[in-house]
Structures are given as C-alpha cells and as structure tokens.
Design goal:
By secondary structure, the protein is α+β, with helices and mostly antiparallel strands. It has five helices and 15 strands. A hairpin with a 5-residue loop joins strand 4 and strand 5. The protein is globular and about 55 Å long. The N and C termini lie far apart (40 Å).
C-alpha cells in the first residue's frame, strides 16, 4: 500500500476531535537538529506498515540513519513472528526509525529492541506520567485497574543495507470498548496526565537518541553503557515463574532471574540449572 502524506486535507483526519493529527512541522522543529541523530521526520496519513516501508526505503538507498517514519494509521501492522494487530486512526503512536550502529559488533545488535524498550519507558514516564514496564523481549506494559496490560510492542528488522529498522506501536487514547483483547491497555486507561501525541513522540525519540548514543559510545557493551542495568530495573518479567514455549511443542519452565550480556532471558529451573533463552528461540513467553 502506498503511504499517504499527512498533509492530505481529507476530512477523515478530523473525524475524531479527541484525536487530532500530529503536527509534522512542530515535530521536525523539535527533533531535527545539527549533530543530532534524527535527520528526517515524515508523517503519513495511512499505510500498511511503517517498518515495511522504511525497510524498503533503506534497501533502495532512499533513507539515511536517523530517518523516522510515523503513520497516523496502519492497516497491516506486524508484531514479532508476523502477528497482526490494528488500532483506530490517530489512537496511538505508530512509527519506525532507521539505525546503523556501524561502531558496534553485529552480535550486540540484538540489544536494540531492548534499548528501545528502555527509551520508550523513559520517555513515557516523563511525558505522560505513566510507569511503563517491560515484558521481555518486546512488550510494553501499563497498569490498568491494578492489572498489567500490554499497551505496545517493539519490532526490529534488518534493513539489508547494514542497518536496522526498529518499529514501535503504543496505544495512547484507545478506549475500553476499542480494546482488541481484554488484556490490552492504553496510556489513557492507565491514567496518563497527557495524551497529546506530539510531546509524547518527542519525549520517546529524545530518550531513544540518548540511550542509543550511550550504547554506541560504549561499543554496544550493555554493562558499560548502563543499558543492562536499566533494562533489568524496568523488566516486569524478572522474579517471576514463566513458561517459555519453544518451537516443536517444547517448553522450558523456570524463574526469570536475569537478562544476560547477550540480551537473553535466564531461567532458573526446578532442576537447579540456569537456562538462557533468546528472543529468536521462543514462540510465547507466559506466566507459569
């Protein structure tokens, strides 16, 4: 599907006055600066997937590191393992960024989705006043009526040009009657002090620029950059008994005790073993 630019004057942009469109001019003014990470910010009205679009642009040599592509609505959004999800137009933040951490060994690039999770939690805490917990490896959780619910997710994909496209989806103003499943949530349902998407997006991208800079300066070392400690501090999975469902109808049950230097979740099993599992190894991770 061809993305439609957000400057399109279609009346549908104002079909829900509680969900005004993003101000692309203000976003560019607040994010694009000399010497900064973010080089270009584009907002499209509607597309299938910002990740798919940005991967294609990068592969075609039409996007540089620091490109940000935001959609007011996605019709074919994908999560991990190509799981599909949808949300009403302008009800959330749906965006992808292109990163090229050439100074970092490729075997450390697996930290990028975890780094993005820390950045999103940091940015939302400051801009929305909402505590966002991280469910390993790529879910964003908020508390609604005393219950942890998924309010977003992260998807990283290799761009094929030496880069990585990281996509983020966050439910901002999703209402109770719009939830795709009962265990879903949104910033509004979690009591956010602000659901204005412009400052929320600026806050998240500034936090991402900060954490990416620290990690890259440390050569991707998660301990030296402080990323490993920060992720563990915000990870709701640690300290819980979980069941990691693996390919081939296999499963591993144990207490999640750590996230190791490779970004893998370490499970302490009843047999006394410590078993690391990588994000690419699991089909589902559930509470046991």
């Amino acid at each position: 599907m061809t993305p439609r630019d957000a400057s399109d004057p279609s009346p549908s942009r104002w079909s829900d006055l509680d969900r005004p469109p993003l101000n692309v001019t203000a976003l560019r003014r607040g994010l694009v600066r000399e010497g900064g990470l973010w080089r270009r910010v584009d907002v499209v009205q509607r597309t299938g997937s910002t990740n798919t679009d940005l991967v294609a642009l990068a592969a075609g040599g039409k996007a540089d590191e620091g490109a940000v592509l935001v959609a007011e609505e996605q019709t074919a959004a994908r999560g991990r393992l190509d799981r599909q999800w949808t949300a009403p137009a302008r009800s959330g933040l749906f965006f992808s960024v292109l990163l090229r951490p050439v100074e970092v060994p490729v075997d450390r690039w697996g930290w990028l989705p975890l780094l993005t999770g820390v950045a999103v939690a940091t940015g939302l805490s400051r801009a929305a006043g909402v505590d966002t917990a991280l469910k390993w490896p790529n879910d964003l959780l908020v508390t609604v009526d005393g219950e942890e619910r998924k309010a977003g997710g992260i998807l990283a994909e290799r761009a094929g040009d030496g880069g990585v496209v990281v996509g983020v989806g966050i439910n901002v103003t999703l209402r109770a009657d719009e939830l795709p499943v009962p265990r879903a949530g949104s910033l509004a349902l979690a009591g956010a002090v602000s659901t204005d998407r412009d400052p929320l997006l600026r806050g998240v991208l500034r936090a991402l620029e900060d954490w990416y800079g620290r990690w890259r300066s440390a050569g991707g070392d998660p301990a030296v950059s402080g990323l490993q400690e920060a992720y563990a501090a915000g990870c709701a999975t640690l300290g819980r008994m979980v069941r990691a469902e693996l390919p081939g109808d296999r499963a591993l049950v144990g207490e999640a005790v750590a996230v190791d230097g490779d970004g893998r979740l370490v499970l302490a099993t009843e047999e006394g073993a410590r078993e690391p599992v990588g994000a690419g190894d699991i089909v589902h991770l559930r509470l046991a």
